[in-house]
From TrEMBL:
Pfam families: SBP_bac_3. The keyword Ion transport does not apply. Keywords: Signal. The keyword Heme does not apply. Transmembrane segments: none annotated. NCBIfam families: ABC_peri_MoxJ_2. Residues 29-255 form the Solute-binding protein family 3/N-terminal domain. This is Amino acid ABC transporter substrate-binding protein (PAAT family). Residues 1-19 form the signal peptide. It comes from Cereibacter ovatus. InterPro entries: Quinoprotein_dehydrogenase, Solute-binding_3/MltF_N.
Length: 271
């Protein structure tokens, strides 16, 4: 969630010229730029699924894993990747021009989270009439908010902050807490956040939103981000991602991340 807030903030700093970045990639360590408090994706205690991906890739590359920690807020890329302190951001939406994207290594979507034994347990779309008059938690300014407006659900919606420092604020956790206590009836979250966080809450059910019509789309292809101009490094990572796709899928599925096919039309079949 906070990662998409970062992307929405626009270009935060100009990348170094291509001629200047070629020598910045370390040959001594797999250097990862990460948020220390962005669970369930990255965490300084190593429990995030992006931590597990980083550990796996470091092992495959035969290098020690080294982190540069910085909150995923304005200035993240400028103070980490562009400063030459680290060489890759594990998760980045495909097409963002702030970084050079690798090939995508998974596709996911936003999810609807409801109480498993509640009256909304059978809902699979935001267009379902059963949601009318319900209190739906949503991240303000996120793509699903536009769909809630389209379906007349914003009048009773409960907004949660978009741009946050996760060291001091946890909108996704608060959203699920409110759902469990009955303060809200449903929650809409980015799948790689909502899926893993709800996995440890058996009272909740996670429903990938696969049938939403109209813009904006709710699914995204996720890549790794490197500095502009580092095409050799990008190609090296692409080769590793291709070879290790099954292992990465296993890590993501184990974490509870909903995996979609490349076109966002359905769940990705397990190999």
């Amino acid at each position: 969630m906070t990662r998409f807030a970062l992307l929405a903030a626009g270009l935060l700093a100009a990348a170094p010229a291509a001629a200047q970045v070629a020598d910045l990639v370390s040959d001594q360590a797999f250097r990862v730029c990460a948020d220390p408090a962005n669970a369930p994706m990255s965490s300084q205690d190593g429990t995030g699924f992006e931590n597990r991906i980083a550990e796996h890739l470091a092992k495959v590359l035969g290098k020690p894993l080294d982190y540069t920690w910085f909150p995923m807020v304005t200035g993240f890329a400028r103070n980490t990747l562009f400063a030459g302190k680290c060489d890759v951001v594990i998760g980045y939406a495909q097409g963002d021009e702030l970084v050079l994207n690798t090939n995508h290594y998974y596709t996911s979507t936003h999810v609807l989270v409801v109480r498993a034994d509640g009256p909304l347990a059978g809902v699979t779309s935001l267009a379902d009439p059963a949601l009318q008059g319900r209190r739906v938690g949503v991240v303000a300014g996120s793509p699903p908010a536009s769909h809630l407006v389209r379906h007349g659900l914003m009048a009773k919606a409960r907004p949660y902050n978009l741009m946050v420092d996760r060291r001091v604020e946890n909108p996704a956790g608060d959203m699920l807490d409110d759902l469990e206590t009955g303060a809200t009836d449903a929650a809409v979250l980015w799948g790689p956040v909502g899926g893993p966080l709800a996995k440890g809450r058996p009272a909740l059910k996670v429903v990938p939103l696969l049938a939403e019509e109209g813009a904006p789309r709710l699914y995204y292809r996720i890549t790794m981000g490197v500095r502009q101009g580092e095409d050799v490094w990008k190609r090296a990572l692409n080769s590793v991602l291709r070879r290790e796709q099954a292992a990465l899928d296993a890590i993501l599925r184990d974490a509870g991340v909903p995996l979609l096919d490349d076109y966002g039309r359905g769940l990705k079949a397990a190999e």
